[in-house]
Amino acid sequence: MFHALLAVLILTAMIAFFKGIRIIQPGFVGVSVFLGNARNEALSEGLHVVIPFLTAIHRVDTRIQKVEASSFESASKDLQSVKASIVVNYNLKKDVVVKLYREIGINYAEVVILPGIAEVYKATTANFTAESLIT
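RESULT FIELD:
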């Protein structure tokens, strides 16, 4: 009985040890969330030791990414229907990732980037006639 209990304790300690080691890959930043509270400093790439089971690490990609927005429809200056597909390349600054995580969340592309693309597209196409957009 003692040996089984000792084996369970050793196994639990090993799981806790390995659960407390996190690796942030190059091109990513980690947002450390301890008991639901995002810490102020982002975790840079490399090995980090965290409190197991109480700390979650959310990896955020800081490399150049692209978002494709297709089937945008707008009206030109002469009220002609204009459809377009737009591709935008972007990357996140490492020093604002924690603020972005706190204020917007992980789905920032759907919340900020896609609506921004739609707004700029509609505002831009309204300044030109359909003929000038084609040329």
